[in-house]
Amino acid sequence: MFISFEGYRLSHKQKHLISEAASAALDMLVSHRMKNSLDITIEITKNMYKQTGSLGNCGLEDESRSPKFFTVELNYSGVESFGMLITALCHELVHVAQYAHRRLRELTGLSRMAWKNKHYNTNVTRYYDRPWEIEAHQLEEDIYNKVSEEKNLRKYLNMHNCDEYRVLVVN
């Protein structure tokens, strides 16, 4: 697995903690072999939630039959939001796994997606009714709880009073 960072500058420690969390999350979601083939760009957007109402996005960067290149955009609204960032990371990595396993696919045409063998128009299907979002929301808390058991991340979250369920700080 190769992870790179773009966008708003985080500390080296924060980048390291995100990388460790991503690695632990992917251990739960994909095989070791698949994990090692993934190339993920983490794009940090300052106050993305305030601007768009979104905590994260997952973008597919290659259109091959077996996608390996992804961009995960995450909201950062200050150190207190770091727990929310890790929660969003867990959610978006579920989408990475869905794409990598080909359960989720982008189709030709605007706003068209396939989940398993069924096609959806995202302009018609509400966000919370999309099966790939239902799965991601079901898994994100369990994944977050597992990755946040890691000593360094738990220490950082506690030291900075970060909580994944804390109200978002949007300065």
Q: Which terms summarize this structure?
A:
171 residues, alpha/beta, Collagenase (Catalytic Domain), 6 helices, globular, disordered C terminus
How are the strands ordered across the major sheet? 1-2-4-3
Helix content: 40-55%
Q: Number of domains in the coordinates?
A: 1
Order of helices and strands: EHHEHEEHEEEHH
Quote the distance from N terminus to C terminus.
33 Å
Major beta sheet summary: 4 strands, mixed
Q: Report the sheet-strand fraction.
A: 15-25%
Q: Tell me the total number of β-strands.
A: 7
The stretches of 5 or more residues where confidence is low (pLDDT under 50) are 165-171
How many whole angstroms does the radius of gyration measure? 16 Å
CATH architecture designation: 3-Layer(aba) Sandwich
Mean pLDDT: 92
Which assembly state applies to the chains in this document? single chain
Global morphology: globular
CATH topology: Collagenase (Catalytic Domain)
- Structural class call reads alpha/beta
* The CATH top-level class label: Alpha Beta
Number of helices: 6
Please provide a written account of the structure.
With 171 residues, this protein is an alpha/beta fold. The chain has one domain: Collagenase (Catalytic Domain). It has six helices and seven strands, in the order βααβαββαβββαα. The strands form two sheets. A four-stranded mixed sheet has the order 1-2-4-3, with helices on one face. Strands 5-6-7 form a three-stranded antiparallel sheet. Helix 1 crosses helix 4, helix 1 (12-29) crosses helix 5 and helix 4 (82-100) crosses helix 5. The termini are far apart. The model is unreliable at 165-171 (pLDDT under 50).
